[in-house]
Amino acid sequence: MAAKHISWAEPFKIKMVEPLFMTTRAHREKALEAAGSNTFLLRSEDVYIDLLTDSGTSAMSDRQWAGLMLGDEAYAGSRNFYHLEEAIHRYYGYKHVIPTHQGRGAENLISKILIKPGDVVPGNMYFTTTKLHQELAGGMFTDIIVDEAHDPNSGFTFKGNVDLSKLQAVINTYGAERIPYVSIATTVNMAGGQPISLANLQALREFTSKHGIRIIHDMTRVAENAYMIQQLEEGQGNKSIAAIVKEICSLTDGATMSAKKDALVNIGGFLATNEWDVFEEARNLVVIYEGLHTYGGLAGRDMEAMAIGIEESVQDAHIRARVGQVFYLGQRLIDMGIPIVKPVGTHGVFLDAKAFLPHLRQTAFPAQALAAELYIDSGVRAMERGIVSAGRDQKTGEHCFPELELVRLTIPRRVYTQAHMDVVAESVQRVFEQRHSVTGLRMTYEPKYLRFFQARFEKLPAA
Amino acid sequence: MKHRTIIEPFRIKSVEPIGLSTEEERAEHLINAHYNPFLLHSRDVIIDLMTDSGTSAMSAHQWAGMMEGDEAYAGSRSWERMEQEVRDLTGMPHILPAHQGRAAERIIYGHLGRPGKVFISNTHFDTTRANIEFSGASAIDIPIPEGRDTALQHPFKGNMDVAALDQLLKEHKGHVSAVILTVTNNSGGGQPVSLANAEGVASICRKHDVLFLLDCCRIAENSWFVKHREPGMEGSTYRQIAQRMFALADGAVMSAKKDALVNMGGFLALRDEVLADACTNLLIITEGFTTYGGLSGRDMEAIAIGLREVFDPHYLDYRIKSTTYLGRKLHELGVPLMRPIGGHAVYIDAKKLYAHIPPHQYPGQALVCELYRLGGIRSVEIGSVMFGKYVADGSLIPSAMELVRLAIPRRVYTQSHIEYVAEAFEEVLRQRDRVRGYRIVKEPKFLRHFTAHFEPIV
Which end of chain A has fewer CB atoms < 10 Å from its terminal CB, N or C? Predict the structure, then answer.
């Protein structure tokens, strides 16, 4: 088609389907109670449209499925590893690669290798597992994202940007030698899937080079970030997604990747670095935690699917449809007057639970309550990204009170259709109409780490 | 008709080509891999007997299960199937999935171990020992004395020395984190453990109130030996025998890459809720959420099916007898090896084969390199490279045995592949006096055998 079309129609057709389960409201009420009002604890079978996460939930292409059949399951030196390594060299440009079973495996390794007790790791907003690994290694996370990121109503385009004056302040307080690296996520998940601009990253590179500080790239959604740069950043519109992705990577010293997002696979990740010493240490550590360095805890077939997925993920037509679908849902909700984080992120739509349920205090877990309500209404499963996810302060033991209290409607890649998105929008609208009757929650069980996964709740009585 | 031929209880549904090479090419590959087969490209290997871990051919049923994988992040149906299957088999209530066995091990041993703590096993495997030592604890091996003599015939050479266990538990009172019984005993030659021995270990653990864990990655193969060698067991099914063993333990770790017939996966099964909760916290941090543990849904599906298939009596018969077939052939050729033949592998006694190479020059490594150079066969050293230790003055305490393991992947190679391996050994024997030892030129601190570089001694 020569004409420039507005529709985000998918550049693929469906080759294999999986049945969905339709349930009644009564069934869902029971299921949610059994799950302690935590959507993480629901059975997949009781869920109609699963927007819990875009992680590991993609539909693979026929080429990737064919790749699964080409798995070389040799313990050492599998040819799939070399294919993966080649794909990473070609599309991301990092020198050395260590596969891991998923992203957190790579986070564990890099934190253990680079962070010493007492170190400070600045980053463009925290992410749950990333922050925890930094803390377990004896480090402390500190936020240097621009202020706009914390304001769900700010229309600022690049909310993932770093505020260099904040980084300067961290250096003034702790000294550059206590900063092993700056952690940069593309896109920033906890801010609502918000991108960082190339100009900002370039400025950060220049700044950190001056102080001899590394940049480690949490690159799980780098292609989506590149799409936003292509669409919205001045002077970048003529570059391909592949070119922008490579440019982003070239401004950093190493990366952790959960391939379960942009790389379109159900399992897998890697650690990449341009430094030989870091690579050597990672190669020694990976055998203890993951597996030998040529499989890192992955079946050969999954490395093959990842190599193919990386290539597919940087195609302009793919990303355009991917983000187009997310924006479609976002726009529908905006048109309905639903409070969501703006601009719409690239991998999901984030409902602003504080504005949605203004009658609830943050300690009544408004986002958790909203996610529960949405499930009861339609069987749509969403995820809390607010006070429960933020956890407790390491020192005081008090709740951390994040400014953003969000419910994430995360869209798996290539899985749901436009009609599914319509069902979601309509359900959100119904809950919005009945929002005044939604009561808060009380936490009845709280695990020590990453509490959002397994915490249990009880409904508070109506006031 | 009673037949002597071991017929596979399956036919082949999908094949994978093998790349052939010349001896000259392989000599070159060996140099590039620093004489460490772990560093060889898989495409340059003809017959890969490096490990039986994750190398199985899955069944059509398992591949169909792969297509049904539910990749939901939380509450996946595939997890429910796997959890149910593991519960049925082990009788344990708390099941934690992990991306493979060593992850399950690291979680529980990392939680239980710390400096001053002790773990006791019939023989710790390489990754097990590394996990324990990494936590600061120490690992003590107490196989029965017969287990250390490669030529001696004994039906259950994998057994633990129960008297020694009692003594150790008294000596280290209050400091023993767990007793780990590995079935079959991999480092000790893939030798089985009897049910009676497991009962003895369990009762001593109970007496001293110490946690008793099974490393059950080859429990189906172990059950075959119990049924055929232990008095009174011939009437039980393989699955029943495994279940009786599980019933004795407080928990189990499994690398599903062995007897669950899959390419990836593992789990931790526990009876105690408090311990399970503590392990769950660690699981989420490094592996993944409780309902996937770092595995794709499809792999959990394949594990659930594989755990059923492995107890099929025809499969187990074929599995054990075809391993024995290779062992018997090599024995007839005069290759010194660990006897009786174990379940998953044939272990060559490299110390006897290359009597002229002293342990600190790694006779096992020499054999591993010879086998690759002559036949393109990849095997693994289980001797002083894997288990040797340096003392303060830098000298090496060698391992008790210098073995080379020929591990047979499940359902992958045919009888003619095995004949080819035997043929390569004829050449190994012809050239034995010419072979020299090796020295290590580079090594990491833990699990050095995976990445160390070697050099032949001229």
Answer: N
Strand B377-378 versus strand B345-349 pairing type? unpaired
Q: Among B282, B279, B286, which residue's Cα sits nearest to residue B94?
A: B279
Minimal C-alpha gap between B54 and chain A (Å):
7
**Angle of CA points B327, B4, B420, to nearest 5°:** 40
Q: How far is B260 from chain A (nearest CA, A)?
A: 14
List, in order, residues 6 or more apart from A158 with CB less than 8 Å away.
Answer: A146, A194, A195, A196, A197, A200, A228, A232, A233
Task: Please tell me what DSSP assigns to residue B392.
Answer: T
Contact between B176 and B169 under an 8 Å Cβ cutoff? The reply is yes
> How far apart (Å, rounded) are the C-alpha atoms in residues A339 and A337?
6
Residue type, B160: M
Task: Read off the tokens for B68.
Answer: 């049904």
**B88 Cβ under 8 Å from any chain A Cβ:** no
Q: What is the pTM (predicted TM-score) of this model?
A: 0.91
- For the CA atoms of A220, A39, B65, A291, the dihedral, rounded to the nearest 10 degrees, stands at 40
pLDDT grade for A450, boundaries at 50, 70 and 90: confident
Q: Is B444 on the interface with A (CB under 8 A)?
A: yes
* pLDDT score for B445: 79
Report helix, strand and coil shares of chain A as percent, to nearest 5.
Answer: 45, 15, 40
Tell me the CB-side half-sphere exposure of residue A112, using CA atoms within 13 A: 17
Helical segments of B310-357, H only: 313-333, 350-353
- Report pLDDT digits (tens) over B154-212: 999 999 999 999 999 999 999 999 999 999 998 778 899 999 999 999 999 999 999 99
Alpha-carbon gap, residue B120 to B103, rounded angstroms:
19
Cβ distance A76 to B134 less than 8 Å, yes or no, reads no
B228 backbone dihedrals φ, ψ, rounded to 5°: -90, -15
Residue with tokens 């009644």: A24
Give the gap in angstroms from C-alpha B315 to the nearest C-alpha of chain A: 21
Q: Give the model confidence (pLDDT) of A240-269 as tens digits.
A: 999 999 999 999 999 999 999 999 999 999
Chain A residues in contact with B100 by the CB 8 A cut-off are 101, 291, 297
Contact predicate A404/A192, CB 8 Å: yes
Please state the rounded mean pLDDT for residues A385-412. 93
pLDDT digits (tens, 9 = 90+) for A56-82: 999 999 999 999 999 999 999 999 999
A42 contacts B75? CB cut-off 8 A: yes
Closest residue to A288, CB basis, from B66, B285, B447: B447
Backbone angles phi, psi at B239, to 5 degrees: -65, -40
Sorted by sequence, the CB contacts under 8 Å of residue A373 that are 6+ apart come out as A431, A438
Strand A181-185 relative to strand A214-218, pairing: parallel
Phi-psi region of B164 (alpha: psi -120 to 50; beta: other; left: phi over 0): alpha
Which of A368-394 are b and which e, b meaning 16 or more Cβ less than 10 Å from the residue's Cβ? bbbbbbbbbbbbbbbbbbbbbbbbeee
Residue A2 has pLDDT above 50, yes or no: no
By CB atoms closer than 10 A (0-12, 13-18, 19+), residue B114 is: exposed
Structure tokens, A22: 């339709």
Which of B72, B99, B284 lies nearest to residue A57, judging by beta carbons? B72
pLDDT category at B95 given cuts 50, 70, 90 is very high
- Chain mean pLDDT for chain B: 95
Residue B221 falls in which region: left (phi positive, over 0), alpha (psi -120 to 50) or beta:
alpha
Residues 6+ apart with CB under 8 A from A399: A363, A387, A390, A391, A392, A393
Across-strand partners of A188? A194
Contacts of A324 (CB under 8 A, 6+ apart): A8
